[in-house]
């Protein structure tokens, strides 16, 4: 049983963003500070990646652990109510993500998925980004 009224639940869900989330903004600031410039949410590419590095043919997705089902992560726990709604929805998100990554790969793009929980260790994340973007190789 939901602890919120339908109106309260509706208001809370309306606040969930698909773009410009806090994790995405953190990654954008970090990548920008590293000297890289990028485009946002290119609608011509499958999945509308969060950061697009056209010249490098690389994209970055910043995924919320809950919404995209980060396997083995405590933030990806299932809700306690309405599992008949949430299970198919969240599994559908996970399957769609996999399809979009494969489509990008077939188009010759390299993808990196950064999970919300990875933002806890900025030093490690920065190393991953440098490796992915080819720090100092442009």
Walkthrough of the structure:
This protein has 138 residues and is an alpha+beta fold. It has one domain: VSR Endonuclease (Endonuclease, Chain A, 3-Layer(aba) Sandwich). 44% of the residues lie in helices and 12% in strands. It has five helices and four strands. Strands 1-2-3-4 form a four-stranded mixed β-sheet, sandwiched between helices. It is globular. The mean pLDDT is 90.
Secondary-structure topology with pairs:
Layout: H1 6-14, H2 22-33, E1 39-40, E2 51-53, E3 58-63, H3 65-68, H4 83-106, E4 110-115, H5 122-133
Parallel strand pairs: 3-4
Antiparallel strand pairs: 1-2, 2-3
Report the strand count. 4
How helix-rich are the residues, as a percent range? Answer: 40-55%
Percent in strands: 5-15%
CATH superfamily: VSR Endonuclease
Distance between the termini: 54 Å
User: What is the top-level CATH class?
Assistant: Alpha Beta
The tally of structural domains comes to 1
Determine Rg (CA atoms, Å). Answer: 17 Å
Question: Given the structure, what is the number of helices?
Answer: 5
Note the main sheet: 4 strands, mixed
Strand order of the largest sheet: 1-2-3-4
Mean pLDDT: 90
CATH topology grouping: Endonuclease, Chain A
- Segments where pLDDT lies below 50 for 5+ residues? none
